[in-house]
Write a structure and sequence with these properties.
The protein has about 450 residues and is of the alpha/beta class. It is built from 15 helices and 18 strands. The chain folds into three domains: about 250 residues, FAD/NAD(P)-binding domain (3-Layer(bba) Sandwich); about 110 residues, 3-Layer(bba) Sandwich (FAD/NAD(P)-binding domain); about 70 residues, no CATH class.
Length: about 450
Amino acid sequence: MMDGNLTLHDRWHHVVIIGGGASGVLMAAHLLGTGHPDIRVTIIERGSMLGCGIAYGTTHPQHLLNTRVAQMSAFPDRPDHFADWLMRTGRAATDQCFVDRATYGRYLDDLLNPWRGGEDARRLRCVQGSCIGLRETATGIIARLDDGTSVMADAAVLATGHAVPADPQPPLRGAWDFSAPADPDATVAIIGTGLSMIDHVVTLLAAGHRGPVLCISRRGLLPQVHAPTRPLKLGRQDIPLGASVSALLRWLRDRVRDAEATGGTWRDAVDGIRPHIAAIWRSWDNEKRARFLRHAATYWEVHRHRMPPISADRIETARKRGQLSIIRGRFDTAAVQDNGRTRLNMTAHGRAEAGVHDVDHVIDCRGIRRDPVEHATPVIRDLLDRRAARLDPLQLGLDTTQDAKVINASGWPSSRLFAIGPAARGALWEITAIPDIREQTFRLARVVFGSAELATRQGA
């Protein structure tokens, strides 16, 4: 980890982080906590509160974390940190609870408190604004903001999160628009049946909505429900790295049978394989990755990204009383009729003819795997336009090396520009949940930006 007589740390005195959501705050907390008192961080975030982003900016108490308190610590070497924070701030919760996401957003924001006052305040600067461009020079990085100012640093980390689509064209409403229909008896249609749909349904029910709710998706699959789990102990040598997608799935089904044979469930197998997902993804060529995305990704995600039991109970109650219906089919078009209602046209599963549904309120919850160019942030678009970055071959996000260096259009990795979290999921696939981002930012802070000696001492 040496460059001449300098450690990498000696090169990175000032790091600018683009994006102050969960990924950006975790990156900042880990950088500032490496033990090097002269590392400084500037966070550029257009929102007013750090740590929130699209996931944790909600104000609805019904929007719960999809992972238990015990797995949500910001620090892999301090697994009780979040639980201790909840206790310290007077919030009653056990380590097996699913707390609301707004509370987690406040936790993330609080992570930076040690550097907001006193002597260490000089090490953290938070700039509210939008970064519209990054230029790499021989000596550093220049970040341009929308107000005409610039921030100069030694390195930059892109933590821009998901490529969030712009609000859909009316009559569709966006997935983050939780305004309820004026009429509590209105018919609501939700396109998509993932975790965003769960948020909308529980919000509607909590507001006293009485009308029917139609949920439409190609496969009609709902996220599975969290339950106690004992993850199988699987080492890297146990994983059939490089095997075909079908062979890997057969192997996983065998592990499910192993778990069930000892009184467990499929969750034990899924949670046992989770630490090895990045290794599996790296072992596949682009053809195998594409085949997984086409045929298996949806099934993996509904088992991997589960909903809390309290949300599942509300969904099941609404289904049993006939208020909530799951419709399997492909959404085609939506148009407002003369009577003010919206007509949805869809192709029903297994049939060529279109189905028609007249509804009053339509919400587009088709997920986050959208076009990373069309929905790119200004800084990402600028990098792509200037060929200073490129998308990964499957168009999931920015192309990076395994140690998060951004790769330009000519195939060369940057020496000063990094991308983390959902913005760069092409290299690791599962880098959208806190436990995964926590590991990535922890290691990056210590191995890339910190000294080799510190990385060894921290067990990175």
